[in-house]
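Worked problem 6 (solution included).
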Amino acid sequence: MGTTDTGTAAGTDTGTETGAETGAGRGGEHVEHVGRGGRVGRIVRSPLGWMLTGMAGVALVSALTATGPGPVPALGAAAAVLVYRLVTQRLAGRPTPEAARSGAGRAALLGGGIGLVFVLASALVITLCGGYSFSWAGGGVLSLVGSAVMVQIGASVTEELMFRALALQALERLWGSRAALVITSVFFGVAHLGTPGANPWSGVAIALEAGALLGAAFLWRRSIWFVAGLHFTWNTAEQLLGIPVSGHAPDGLFTVGVHGPALLNGGSFGLEASVVPVLAALALAARMLVLARREGGLVGRREGGLVGRREGGPVGRRRAGRRAGITGGQEK
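Solution. The predicted structure is:
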């Protein structure tokens, strides 16, 4: 009986070892393949990985729809939001309270109100200083307004998804909120250097003005609808006033006369290259950052690095979730 036990045990051990060796031999390639797949997966799921994947997807949607007729740009914006949600949930592995449907209208109206006041106040100051004069252009009001609304919905939503929802949040997970704000602001300015009438000053102005203000607005409210609303009314008001939008001069309700130095009126690039909105935007951005810090919405560099290595969002997600109507990490 003892001999039988020993033989059995020996046979079992030998069989086990042989099976293990055989299994290792047969599955060696599979294990190596899984390892490679795992490394690729980790790269794609890293902050830079999902940032670049998402930006490429949103940019592709924008390229296909931005100049389309009628409601096509707005439909493209809706498709871009779906791409963003898909990439963020599947690759970043987190919910998207910043793009939640609940509370979206209220957030967009609040941001839109700020953007409208910002542009109108800046244009008024420039006009009072002799930089602008306006005359009614005539033409079909409804068609002009409708076209401007559709085009600017597409532009504002896709740009905010790329630069704030994707780039700012990814970089924030690596280096914190402040570094992410600076980097995305510079990137936003550089991205506008290829537009008509652009020059080094207009790039700096866009970085200081639009990049800083829109980035600070996102860090404060943690809502893509808030910053998209701000961006939308900003661009739409400029277009309808007849002022070039980042160098582009589409038809508006008014014809604008430009007088005096370009530092005042922005020259051919438009209002955004004027020192007036730059100073106003920096003041607004500073106030928003103070509010974001007070409400716990800013992530430090060390904390950002920790966030980048774990699932979940930055500090302030629960606040964003409450504003966006999120309960228990699930989207309503």
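Discussion: The mean pLDDT is 85.
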